[in-house]
Amino acid sequence: MKLKRMKLKRINLRLIKQRRMNSRTMRSKYLRAKTLKQSPALVLLSLLSTQVLAESYYGEGDFYLGGKFGGALLDLRPLDSQESGQDKQNPVNATTGITFGYHLNNYLAIEADMSYLGRYRSEGANSSEEVNHSEELFSIATYLSTQYRLSDDAALYFKLGPAWVNELVSLSSGLGLKYRMSPRWELDTGYRWIQDTPDSGDDLYEFTIGVTYKFGLKHQSKIAVEINPVAKAEPIQPPLASQVNIDTSELFSFDSNRLINIKSLVNFVDTLAIKICDLEHIASIDITAHTDSVGDKSYNLKLSKRRAEAVKAALITLGLPAKMLHTSWSGEALPVATNSTPEGRAQNRRVEISLKLAE
């Protein structure tokens, strides 16, 4: 009887041990399948994301083309002292136009504006003369424009330059608000002033709304993934630390923590699925964000923090556990290139992602 009980006990122990082994195997297969299962969807998402790649919000060398419509008011001045106390109705007309510009850098642009300003009556030299005729006003203006960023998507701008109105040169200025609807499209609402229009010499005020389209956005180059070599004859040794480094310099628009390209992050997750397979072998994934030296140092430090947290959130969305993701940020303190050139600043705007295997 005792011998029978001992045999049954041994059989039960074997069954328990086998169940534990099967449980571990199934858990490992589940984690591996979960990681690999996400890859096709992520690759599809990365293909869609390549349509909205950009190097910066306003990168050096970007052209833009816009269209607008609105209304203009002609501020009529009294023709003589007899009219100084009389109220005259200022004429208002519909306007339309196109703009074409080129960004010199992240803050300055040159712009050309061609507009139809409407038809206005041209009066005589004094109040006793009758109206002679009506005249259509066309303008061609060139501006130097500067902007101030309010947020990742909104910016105030101011512009100043000469305007040719029906072949006469006048001073013109304007201000407005641009709002980014997508990496290439912007909504533009603006106000413009033109001094001393032809014939009457009256000032003209124009209010417009329109859209602009940006050309020349640079696509991200392929991200190099560097993996320390492991001897082919030896399996992966848990005590040995291996590290994967990815340097991504074009994840974000300029002065923004909005991700505009997740392709490199998708590649990173796919690399984990292919090279590591089991998430249990990963000790930690460290995310470090950097900026260039444009702007205030304390602001850049806060911006790098927001960028690191944005990458962490994206990796969690792509299926990585939050507990193994750790963020850090250094602002402009650790450049890898000079900040005196556009190319160097582009290299310094980066997020470094490093992976360490469990010991």
From TrEMBL:
Keywords: Cell outer membrane, Ion transport, Membrane, Porin, Signal, Transmembrane, Transmembrane beta strand, Transport. CDD domains: OmpA_C-like (cd07185). Gene3D superfamilies: 2.40.160.20, OmpA-like domain (3.30.1330.60). It is found in: Cell outer membrane. Residues 239-359 form the OmpA-like domain. It is a multi-pass membrane protein. One of its GO terms (cellular component) is pore complex. It comes from the Bacteria. Transmembrane segments: none annotated. InterPro entries: Bact_OuterMem_StrucFunc (IPR050330), Beta-barrel_OMP (IPR027385), OMP/PagP_B-barrel (IPR011250), OMP_bac (IPR006664), OmpA-like (IPR006665), OmpA-like_sf (IPR036737). The keyword Signal applies. GO terms for biological process: monoatomic ion transport. The keyword tRNA-binding does not apply. GO terms for molecular function: porin activity. PANTHER family: LIPOPROTEIN YIAD-RELATED, STATOR ELEMENT OF FLAGELLAR MOTOR COMPLEX. This is Outer membrane protein/peptidoglycan-associated (Lipo)protein.
